[in-house]
Structure formats: C-alpha cells, structure tokens
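I am writing to request your help with a piece of structural work I have in hand. I set the record out below, with my sincere thanks for your time.
___
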Amino acid sequence: MDSRRPKNQMPLAYPAEQGGEALPASGARAELSKAARVTDSPADPRKMMEVVCQAENLWTALARVQANKGSPGVDGMSVQALPGYLKEHWPALREQLLEGTYRPQPVKRVEIPKPDGGVRKLGIPTVVDRFIQQAVLQVLQEQWDPTFSEHSYGFRPGRSAHQAVAQAQEYLTQGYGWVVDLDLEKFFDRVNHDKLMGQIAKRVQDPRLRKLIRAFLNAGVMENGLVSPSEEGTPQGGPLSPLLSNLVLDELDRELQRRGHRFVRYADDCNIYVRSERAGLRVMASVSGWITQRLKLKVNESKSAVARPRERKFLGFSFTSGQEPKRRIAPKALRRFKERVRELTRRTRGVSLQRMVEQLSAYLRGWRGYYGHCQTPSVLQSLDSWMHRRLRAVMWKQWKRGRRRFAELVRLGVGKNLAAQTAGSPHGPWRLARSPALSIALPTAYWESLGLPRLTPGANA
C-alpha cells in the first residue's frame, strides 16, 4: 500500500474478479485505521465532515450498503458496481464533501403495496448517495441516539419492536387498561424541512454537514422520467430517513414525558396508556392539537382511537383481557399470514412439493422469528395443523389417480383396506386431507423431514 496516500483517502483496491463483494485483508484495514487517526482535529464539532470521511467509517458504510443490497437508483448503478466506481471517483467525491459542494441525485419513486391496502411510496437513492448517507448516519447516530427518549424503540441500535410490545404489556399489567392509539397521517411525506433543519442545527455545528443533509432532503423525486421537487418529507428508502424521523418525533417524546404519560413509540406508531376512557379522550384531543400546532403534522382521525388494547393492534400484536394480559397475534396479521400461505400452497401452482416446502419454509422462519414472540401457543398449534392439512391436500392432488394414491398410502404405512377406501373416495382433496389415512401417511414428522419448520414454541427451533 502506498504510504504517501493523502490522509483519509479511501483506497478501494478491489480485485476485478471479486466484483466488490469482499473487503480487503485485515492489514489494509489496519492501514486505514491508522490514516483515520491522523485526521485534522476530528473531535472539533465544526469538522464533523472529516469524521464522516474517516476511512474506518467509510469501510463500515460500504460493508453495510453491500449487505443491505437493494435496487439501483435513478442512475441504474447496482450495489455490485459501487466499489469499482468508488475506487475511481472517491477522491473527487471526498473533495466535494469536504468543500460542501456535493449534490445528491433525485431519488427514484417506487410504490409497494401496504398489507392493509393502498401503497407505500419509497424514494430509492442512488447507491453512491446511499453510501454517503450511511456514512453520515453512523456518525450522527452515535452522537444522537443516547439523547433520545427511553420510550422510543424504532430504528435504534439495541432496541426492537419486541421490546416496545413488552413495555406496552407492562403498562397494561400496571392497570393502564386503555390505549390512546395515535396514527400520524403520511408522516414521512409531511415532515416540515425548515423545522427539521432547525432541530439539526441545534446538534450539528458543521455547516457543510447541515448543507449536505438539506441537499438530501431537497434532492427531488424522479417518477415516470420526470423530476419533482421535494419541499417536505423524508423519503422512506434512504439510510438517513429513520434517524431524521426519530429526531422530529423526539420533541413529541419530550412533551409526553413532561406531561407524565406512560407511552411507547416505534417510529410514527405511538401508543399512550391511561386508566380510563375519559382520560384517553382528553389525552387524544390535547396531544393531537399539540402535534398539529407544534410539529406541523396531522393525526389521522380515521386510524387513531381510544380503545381497549385488545381491540387495537400494535406492531402486529394485540393483547388478551384480564389482570395478566398476554401478547397475541393481531387478527390482521393472522389474516395476512393465511393469505400468504394460501398463495404458496395453492394446488394449481405447478411446482414440485419439495420446492413448495422450501418456499414456505423460508417464509415461516422469518414469520416465526417475529410472531413467535406471542404468548398464545394454541394459535400457533392451530396454524401448524392448518398448514399441514393444506400440504396433504397438495400431495393428494399431485398423486392424481386412484391406483397411485392407493400405492402411495400403502408405501407410507397405511393399511390396505383403509388405503383402498380412501383412494376410492369421491370427496375432494381438502376434506380428505383430514382423513385418518392421510394423517397416518403424512404426519407432522413427515413435513419436518422435508425441512418444514413448525410455529409451535420449542418445535424444531
């Protein structure tokens, strides 16, 4: 490595055949760390951009962007092409960042369907802009996160949705049996830029970094080949957006704490717990007015409510009644689960059973990793039984004819009389999937042998 390299210049010496997938050897990283330590006054709060451009911070940002993958932005550059591009262009990009002249490109508008209907509009930055945003995020998050409220759980290191749900459950156990469920209408699209920049100015003294963040906010949106200005909002899709949203709503957290409320917030999903409906209605009116006047945001009245927690969902969960409420999967989440499983196990899909089980297994592992946090195992047991029944119906359909069905049942341990009776039955696959013969031939152990995970706690975890 050339020891004469300018301080903090990023030597992206990737072998061409690696395609930018792997980071250099540890020796090169040690060299970068050494270069980072000699940055001019990195502790000076007016020189935060130098901290952003430190070599180790940049390597971490690059690794994170590569791990997150994601679609190309408006320039069409893929994540795989990013290391090669930086190898050639990083010195110029670094100079622009340090001089405060860097200009991000517009984000690409992408619409994805919401589980409850409608679409969510995402703004996908270019991979270069994602890399720079990630580098900025790492520096700002380290400074800002310790100052955020203990009641805030979304998009924060070491915090999770499960912790937020557990805290809500604790409030219920303490006797706060009514919830003020606040939904901020199109929050990410309606953040006031001037107000946000005012909050940033209190925390960031480096004018170049403030200018860069403003440039990301005002980069514009490309949709159908046309670029529209972005005068408000923090487009979902970039690394910085969650941190900026937490900064905006930190003011709400502080106000709720000042009022002595018991609350939990995950991003723009905020629940306040009170002892009575009357108190809830009073809090709803007061807090909604404060949000409108102070934060210049709007509470969605049709989606917000004062209700018993069992009637509402919070991060995909609901709660049972009683003195010791338990976490349960919200009805909407269960419906979405069944809709997805029906899609994957449709008898007319035209894929092999093994392939179907592989696809279903991938979905179940992710779903169980989140919703396995519930405290109603009987629900999970019933879902396991329902899925196995659907798969038996698929297998019965694929066996097609009576002779094949009889032979397969006998091969799988069913007595000849029962096998003959079942193979000649006029009933359809769904009804026969509950028959004794198919339960014997295709028990739970059979599906586990194919690699299908169970949702029931403790089962093939």
Remarks:
- Residues 1-41 have pLDDT under 50 and may be disordered.
- The beta strands are 107-113, 119-124, 178-183, 221-223, 226-228, 262-266, 269-274, 305-307, 317-319, 327-329.
- The chain is about 50% helix and 10% strand.
- The longest helix spans residues 377-399.
